[in-house]
From TrEMBL:
Protein's name in the database: Sulfate transporter
Record-linked InterPro entries: S04_transporter_CS, SLC26A/SulP_dom, SLC26A/SulP_fam, STAS_dom, STAS_dom_sf
Subcellular location: Apical cell membrane
Any one Pfam family match given in the protein's UniProt record, by short name: Sulfate_transp
Entry superkingdom: Eukaryota
Native organism taxonomy: Eukaryota, Metazoa, Chordata, Craniata, Vertebrata
Keyword Cell inner membrane: no
Record keyword Glycoprotein present: yes
Taxonomic source organism: Dicaeum eximium
Membrane topology recorded in Swiss-Prot or TrEMBL: Multi-pass membrane protein
Length: 689
């Protein structure tokens, strides 16, 4: 039977677009209100805030995250190649803006090691191109911690007329200028992606690509911190192969290691790792995580200050961290143009991590987020802070897990965290003057435990899916050995190639009948299947398009043990020889047979079927080449008196075949060529003479 298709009303897309345009261009008080409510989700949920139920959890989680943020912000400034004060600015503004614009109740947005690394690589490259010495570390000043003294702490100066800044600007000034320009451009890209609804870009970053990228970047971060761990001064490597070059320089200069830094690093790592392991083991008994990083920083700062580790042992310290806020400044346009390309991967990675974490926790706690609004939120978390000397931000998994485990209910907790950071910015920052850089490096390295543990999951990942494991290995290797941006690009391209290859060479099979049923399965995978006499059933498990056409035909000919083109050519050749013998008056054929016996010779022994059923259930679409391929096999097998029957075609495939003329002009033969189940096609084939 032939099912009757529904008649779909033709949509006038032009009218729809014009109606949407008129609606979007109109402005009414109600529409303006709806726009503001959507753009600032805080206006929707804050009036409904259940204070008695939520406030304790939000305050508790906000305080804990704030306590964690301070040491992490100071530590991650090493990754970004900037002063700790800028990391604190970043943490403060990101929490406030996401509170106003974010749709997730739980994610913690702020400083993130991977984003800091990407910013730092661009900053280092531009400093090098501008003629600054990357190893020209500022000599710690014992001044009053004012911003003016801090800006003059690096004596290297450079006339920046080459990039359009007609002023003398020191290394630190130029570095934060690059970082803010990069951050502004990343935010602009994210807002544009939100306006044009390009959130689908995140679909091309699979879990394997993201995990491999994060692990490869973690190896780069680890490598960059080793010099602080052991207190050696080596040139900062730039460009491709930074990881290998850095390790070579480390081993060349290992004899210059600072014993004080080495001992401090060992003690800090042992304390941090032990505390983390105990925290993971007894987390169900602890009401909130142990603030180990803060304790380590406070103790290490006191020991360094009263032990005079910088003066006596030449241990590298953080130096003066100023208090207060620097006046806002518009990022330089010329610097934006220099880093415009670098901002694109930064924008994508920042957005993808934020949205994926938001969706994960929204699903866990049974609420919904708006991915497009998340893009706007994280975009403005970059654009607005860039005017206040901040750099790029993203959601971070570790801090988000801490937030949820300490009772977070809404983004009020983010405001509490921002207040803690503000307290440090206004009053406590100068107290961290004597903090050793090796302590900050220890905090960064221990925070990478989760990403580095992915190596332990490789065997299990390999058992689940070999292709995904290969994608992970390639992305991780490229991110670590080449560069993070190239690694991300390589991972995306390689994962796409894997999909293309899998559709180019998909599984193919001949099917057999499950005994006493109307179902059919792969004859090479299952035992005790019955072969259908005089009928071959072929399955192709992929869309049929230009890239896999040849593989489709080769597989069909191989499994059915018949190439209709070769068989037709063989028959023509034989007929030609017979005609030549008949013209010569020889009544014996070329094979020594009588003329009456030649008919038997024309029918090859290997043709043991009269019908070919193609199971199209796994063919999701056909392109023009796919339709022509079906028409080709229909014609070729028809020349051998073999009928071709299609089964289980979806409506899209049927429409493609109709448009391509597969069923003829009036579709008259459609009922004899198309079937809604394999069994119906087999029964029809058996009834044929």
């Amino acid at each position: 039977f032939l099912m009757e298709r529904k008649t779909h009303v033709k949509i006038n897309r032009k009218e729809i677009m014009l109606a949407k345009l008129r609606k979007s261009c109109s402005c009414t008080p109600q529409k303006l209100k709806n726009f503001l409510m959507d753009f600032f989700p805080v206006l929707q949920w804050l009036p409904k805030y259940r204070c008695k139920e939520y406030i304790w959890g939000d305050v508790m989680s906000g305080l804990v995250i704030g306590i964690i943020l301070v040491p992490q912000a100071i530590a991650y400034s090493l990754l970004a190649g900037l002063k700790p004060i800028y990391s604190l600015y970043t943490s403060f503004f990101a929490n406030i803006i996401y509170f106003l614009m974010g749709t997730s109740r739980h994610v913690s947005v702020g400083i993130f090691s991977l984003i800091s690394l990407m910013v730092g690589q661009v900053v280092d490259r531009e400093l090098l191109l501008a003629g600054f010495d990357l190893n020209d570390d500022a000599t710690p000043s014992s001044g009053d911690g004012s911003l003016q003294n801090d800006n003059l702490s690096n004596t290297t100066a450079f006339n920046l007329t080459i990039v359009g800044i007609n002023a003398e600007c020191g290394k630190e000034c130029y570095a934060i200028g690059i970082a803010t320009a990069l951050t502004f451009m990343a935010g602009v890209y994210q807002v544009l992606m939100g306006i044009f609804r390009l959130g689908f870009v995140s679909m091309y970053l699979s879990e394997s690509v993201l995990d491999g990228f994060a692990t490869g970047a973690s190896l780069t971060i680890l490598t960059a911190q080793v010099k602080y761990l052991i207190g050696i001064k080596i040139p900062r490597s730039q460009g491709h192969g930074m990881l290998v070059i850095t390790w070579i320089n480390i081993f060349r200069n290992i004899s210059q290691a600072n014993l004080c830094d080495v001992v401090t690093s060992v003690i800090c790592i042992v304390v941090l790792v032990t505390a983390k392991e105990l925290g993971d083991r007894y987390k169900h008994k602890l009401k909130f995580p142990l603030p180990t990083e803060l304790v380590v920083i406070v103790v290490a700062t006191l020991v360094s200050h009263y032990g005079k580790l910088n003066e006596v042992y030449a241990s590298s310290v953080s130096g003066a961290i100023p208090t207060g806020f620097i006046p806002p400044k518009v990022p330089e346009l010329n610097l934006m143009l220099r880093v415009a390309l670098d901002a694109l991967p930064l924008a994508i990675v920042s957005f993808v991590f934020t949205v994926s974490l938001s969706e994960m926790f929204a699903k866990k706690y049974a609420y919904t987020i708006r991915a497009n609004q998340e893009m706007f939120a994280v975009g403005f978390c970059n654009i607005i802070p860039s005017f206040f000397h901040s750099f790029a931000t993203s959601a971070a998994l570790a801090k988000t897990l801490v937030k949820t485990s300490t009772g977070c209910q809404t983004q009020i907790s983010g405001v509490i965290s921002a207040m803690v950071v503000l307290l440090v910015l206004l009053f406590l920052a100068p107290l961290f003057y004597s903090l050793q850089k090796c302590v900050l490096a220890c905090i960064i390295i221990v925070s990478l435990r989760g990403a580095l543990r992915k190596f332990r999951d490789v065997p299990a990942r390999y058992r689940v899916n070999k292709v995904d494991t290969l994608v992970w290995v390639v992305t991780m290797s490229a991110s670590a050995l080449v560069s993070t941006e190239i690694g991300l690009l390589v991972g995306i391209v390689f994962s796409m190639l894997c999909i293309i290859v899998r559709t180019q060479r998909p599984r193919t099979a001949l099917l057999g009948q499950i005994q006493d049923t109307s179902f059919y399965e792969d004859d090479s995978e299952y035992e005790n299947l019955c072969t259908v006499p005089r009928v071959k059933i072929f399955r192709f498990e992929a869309p049929l398009y230009y890239a896999n056409r040849n593989y489709f035909l080769k597989s069909l000919y191989r499994l059915t043990n018949l190439d209709p083109n070769l068989e037709a050519a063989r028959r023509k050749k034989y007929e030609k020889k017979e005609k030549q013998h008949l013209k010569k008056g020889n009544h014996r054929t070329a094979n020594g047979l009588g003329i009456g016996e030649t008919t038997l010779q024309l029918v090859p022994k290997q043709i043991d079927f009269q019908a070919l059923v193609v199971d199209c259930s796994s063919i999701s679409f056909l392109d023009t080449t796919g339709v022509n391929t079906f028409k080709e096999i229909l014609k070729d097998y028809k020349n051998l008196n073999i009928s071709v029957l299609l089964a289980c075609c979806n409506p899209s495939v049927i429409d493609s075949l109709k448009r391509g003329g597969y069923f003829g002009k009036d579709f008259g033969c459609m009922q004899e060529m198309l079937f809604y189940s394999i069994h119906n096609a087999v029964l029809f084939a058996k009834d044929q003479k």
